[in-house]
């Protein structure tokens, strides 16, 4: 088993006033050659946007872009004609493919919105751009691992052009979960949203990231009530 640990305090940080962002991997003005990606996982940004502000219209191509709101309401508009609001409990994906433009804005003027924006390299390039959004049944992730993303259209959660399976767990103190990696050659990147856990023998706290590969399964033990995102992704970019 191989591992890589990214403590919360070692992430890149940029505060633009309207945007306070922490970068697990190299992004924008934060460049760390040892933190370019974890397998096909390229960007993991933890963003806070002040009331009424947001990202203006900008383009993407050949990237799977996933947004997971943690607090507040995020308004999305894109060149495919989608205008929607995503909030805590929702998961959104945009397959940029041949090219798409979008904007993201805090819907509310009087409170901040916090969300994760995560990018993955796709396993199929130059597809027609597409948009997908789901509202999770959050009771399913209580003391268990709820699938929120997969490569299969008929599975629970959103689907992507990549052999990736993501799960969210809301775990009570003292619980223990085992997770089996879905595909040979994949690894798991765990991101702790709340609380404290021990994963594969490593103690982790809020906003710590921990990558594990060259193993078939991992064990998650909670030392406090915790919320954890597991991203099971191919380690080879191809």
UniProtKB/TrEMBL annotation:
Residues 148-233 form the Quercetin 2,3-dioxygenase C-terminal cupin domain. Residues 12-120 form the Pirin N-terminal domain. Gene3D superfamilies: Jelly Rolls. Coiled coil: none annotated. Belongs to the pirin family. This is Pirin. The lineage of its organism: Bacteria, Pseudomonadati, Bacteroidota, Saprospiria, Saprospirales.
